[in-house]
Design goal:
There is one protein chain. The chain folds into two domains: 267 residues, Spore Coat Polysaccharide Biosynthesis Protein SpsA, Chain A; 118 residues, Hexapeptide repeat proteins (UDP N-Acetylglucosamine Acyltransferase, domain 1), CATH 2.160.10.10. The protein is built from ten helices and 31 strands. It is of the alpha/beta class and 420 residues long. The strands form eight sheets. Strands 5-4-1-6-11-8-12 form a seven-stranded mixed β-sheet. Strands 18-21-24-27-31-30 form a six-stranded mixed β-sheet.
Length: 420
């Protein structure tokens, strides 16, 4: 399905509080993923592979690295002379003096930019999910059903509904109800009586329907200005809304792969999915490539092979510029320009770029942020009491080490740790 009449709107401005402290200095979509990529690269790759080549990217919080990444890695790959673009849109306050107050308000504040492109359809996307999807198939379904609005849905277990927006779907595929993150629900999918249809946060609107809904929502003082809470429920019964069942392009044995990496543990698990012999999320499919901004580093290198001092990596993702010098790395995702020095052991961890791990270190189940120097002999992930004094530790025991780890040496946890 040709997507030339469709405009993409990618929401990439969320504060990402649940990914703190990884989002202390960067936007959530700019958080590294899979060693080589940023989270936003997954959705942008879906756009390119689907033929969607006009995309507004709406940024807001701590967007410097995100803006630079998109500008240097994505804006030049489309034919700008043909009207194609990946355009960054920070809050420009054309409609008021506020920053984006919700997902719907973010789109409303750019209503003039959307209207100037004169698309027939607008697809709303999120920049913080890991999945492969051909949006052109969803557009074809939207047109075939003569819908005003189409929602992408994913089957989930009934016990997981508290984390999702639940979509009530009739047997003909039309949407007849919404429940926003209910504790429990009696709603079941008409296509699978043991599952519930959840919203993926991906919507296709006829442009006229979207613009009128946004203007009406902007005038409502009681609105949260959110698609899930306001826009979609307000259109229920007034416009034809249909569900589109997610078709996965991942080409793996697992039927459907979709991950919301909005929490530290979910983010960690999605990275670990890449480390197995046959990775659950397939980065190696030439028919559906995942691309990113390419940085110039030398090849990875593994040095020393003597007893007790062998440089090796097992079941790990290793990127350019990495030197593993007489150390053992297992079940890890290692970003560019990392050095792991002799006699160290790193297991089940995510290492961001420009990290130096000193000799005789032992690290497990940790995320090491960029530019961190781990001193010789450091032990991380083995003593939860000591780790909590120095680092950020999730309830599951995942340890996050940032550049200002010395802030955590006080026995009294800072306020942002207490609220986790």
């Amino acid at each position: 399905m040709d997507m030339k009449d469709t405009l993409g709107v990618l929401l990439a401005g969320g504060a990402g509080e649940r990914l703190f402290p990884l989002t202390r200095d960067r936007a959530k979509p700019a958080v590294p993923f899979g060693g080589h990529y940023r989270i936003i690269d997954i959705t942008l790759s879906n756009c390119i592979n689907s033929g969607l080549r006009r995309v507004f990217i709406m940024t807001q919080y701590k967007a410097l690295s995100l803006n630079r990444h998109v500008r240097e890695g994505w804006t030049g790959i489309v034919a700008q002379e043909l009207g194609e673009f990946f355009e960054l849109l920070p809050p420009m306050q054309r409609t008021g003096a506020n920053w984006y107050m919700g997902t719907a308000d973010a789109v409303y504040q750019n209503i003039y930019s959307i209207g100037s492109e004169q698309p027939s359809h607008v697809i709303i996307l999120s920049g913080d999910h890991i999945y492969k999807m051909d949006y052109s198939l969803m557009l074809a379904h939207h047109k075939e059903t003569n819908a005003d609005v189409t929602l992408a849905t994913l089957p989930i277990a009934p016990e997981d509904v508290a984390r999702f927006g639940v979509v009530e779907v009739a047997h003909n595929g039309e949407i007849v109800g919404f429940q926003e993150k209910p504790a429990v629900t009696e709603v079941r999918s008409p296509f699978n009586p043991e599952a519930v249809d959840a919203s993926m946060g991906i919507y296709i609107f006829n442009t006229e329907t979207l613009l009128k809904a946004l203007m009406a929502d902007a005038e409502d003082p009681e609105s949260k200005h959110d698609f899930g809470h306001n826009i979609l429920p307000n259109l229920l019964g007034k416009k034809k809304m249909v569900a589109y069942s997610f078709v996965d392009e991942n080409k793996k044995q697992q039927a459907l792969y979709w991950r919301d990496v909005g929490t530290l543990d979910a983010y960690y698990d999605a990275n670990m999915d890449l480390c197995s012999v046959s990775p659950i999320f397939n980065l190696y499919d030439r028919e559906w490539p995942i691309r990113t901004r390419v940085r110039q580093y030398p090849p990875a290198k593994f040095v020393f092979g003597e007893p007790g001092r062998s440089g090796m990596a097992i079941n790990s993702v290793i990127t350019a510029g990495v030197i593993i010098s007489g150390a053992v790395v297992s079940n890890c995702v290692v970003s560019q320009d990392v050095r792991v020095n002799s006699y160290s052991e790193v297991d089940s961890s995510i290492i961001f770029s420009h990290v130096n791990i000193g000799r005789h270190c032992r690290i497990r189940r940790a995320i090491i942020d960029r530019d961190v120097h781990i001193p010789e002999g450091a032990v991380i992930g083995y003593d939860p009491v000591e780790d909590k004094r120095r680092y950020f530790v999730t309830p599951s025991g995942l340890t996050i080490v940032t550049r200002d780890a010395s802030l955590f040496e006080s026995p009294v946890a800072p306020e942002f740790m207490q609220r986790y």
